[in-house]
Amino acid sequence: MRHLGLLALLALAAGAPSGAVAEEAGPAIAVIVGRDSFITRVSMDDLRELYLRRRRVWPNGERAIPINLPPDNPLRERFSRLVLGRSAQDLLTYWNARYFEGITPPTVLPSSAAVRAYLAAEPAAIGYVPTADVDDTCRTLLVLVR
After folding, report:
1. Which terminus of the chain has fewer CB atoms gathered within 10 Å of its CB, N or C?
2. Which CATH number does the domain housing residue 42 bear?
């Protein structure tokens, strides 16, 4: 009887990872700039450096303006994990340490619509939204799908 209970627990545990992966996957993330932006490409390494504010200017000398969604937004959590390799919670410690160096975190806007509007007006800004929220006011530079 005890073996049956153990087998049942193992069966449940074996099914858990696939469900967790499916939940974590979520919608594809489009890394975007405004339609008229001078930014034509960006790599994962560039994104990491920009969003951790270790790189604060574009190659042409313009000040880089990375835009984040709010900390409680699930897309921001996925972006943080995929690009920065850290959870949004883990980044709090990182930003507390940067504060004493005079480095501030990326600007936070409340929604995909706000991100698109800001990028349309600011050619040095870069942000991310679900691919379904991309419209003709912006250009997609990279799509993150994990």
Report:
1. N
2. 3.40.190.10
Structural domain boundaries, residue 53: 27-144
CA–CA separation, 125 and 121 (whole Å)? 9
140 occurs within a structural domain: yes
pLDDT per position as a tens digit, 80-103:
999 999 988 889 889 999 999 999
User: For residue 18, is it within any domain?
Assistant: no
Q: How many CB atoms are closer than 10 A to CB 2?
A: 6
Q: Work out how many domains the chain is built from and give that number.
A: 1
- In three-state secondary structure terms, 129 is strand
Please state which of the ranges 1-15, 65-79, 84-98 shows the lowest mean pLDDT.
1-15
- Say yes or no to pLDDT of 8 above 50: no
> In terms of Cα–Cα distance, which of 116, 117, 135, 119 is closest to 64?
119
Alpha-carbon separation of residue 97 from 14, 51, 94, 113 (angstroms): 40, 15, 5, 31
Contact 119, 67 (CB under 8 A): yes
Residue 13 phi/psi, 5° resolution? -65, -40
